[in-house]
Amino acid sequence: QVQLVESGGGLVQAGGSLRLSCAASGRTFSNLAMGWFRQAPGKEREFVATISRSGSAIITYYARSVKGRFTISRDNAKNTGYLQMNSLKPEDTAVYYCAADPRLTAQAMTSPSVGMDYWGKGTLVTVSS
Length: 129
Prior knowledge:
By secondary structure, the chain is mostly beta strands. The chain has no helices and 11 strands. The protein has strands spanning 3-7, 10-13, 18-25, 33-39, 46-51, 60-62, 70-75, 80-85, 94-101, 118-119, 123-128. The strands form 2 sheets. Strands 2, 4, 5, 6, 9, 10 and 11 form a 7-stranded mixed beta sheet that branches. Strands 1-3-8-7 form a 4-stranded antiparallel beta sheet, with no helix packed on it. It is globular and about 40 Å long. It starts with a strand and ends with a strand.
């Protein structure tokens, strides 16, 4: 079993930055592909970014709406994943969730309808205009 705990959310003005963290425990973190998803009020959960499990090459995927502004990364020594968010916009306001899976690829995880094994409880990001 894996526990995921997100942190780093908060209130920020448009154009500002935040860094979200996802602390993992209970399983070798490097063996997990992980990703970030978000859900705005009244909307379905959507893919934000995913990163492959550690190997010869780290592969990342981004939603078109965040590409060039957000960066996903991982620190296996700290069992933690990150989402650096720059140039934030009001439409980025949402609850951000971390997810991880030992079998799915980072590419497969880009579809929120795919059943990831592990989810955190989320952290709220509010971007004011």
